[in-house]
Write a structure and sequence with these properties.
Blueprint: H1 2-13, H2 41-69
Length: 83
Amino acid sequence: MLSRVSNMLKTQLRPHPVLKRTVTTTPTGALLPAPEQTSFGLIKVCLAVIPGLLIGATISKYMANFLEENELFVPSDDDDDDD
C-alpha cells in the first residue's frame, strides 16, 4: 500500500515533457518545409489590444458620470480638508 502511494507521488512530481519538433526529414530523406511564421504579429496584437482599452476606458468614463449624476457615488469633500 505504501509503495503504491509512493509511486503515485513520484509520477505526480515528475515534470511534463516539453513537446518539440525533433524530425526534420521525411522517411525518404527529403527535408520538411520550414514552419509557418506569423507575419506582423506585434501589429496584430496592437490592433486587438488598443481598441479594447479605448472601449473599456469609454465605458468606465460614462459609468462614472452616471454614478455621479445620480449621486450613487459622490466623493466627500471632508477628505480634502487639511486645516
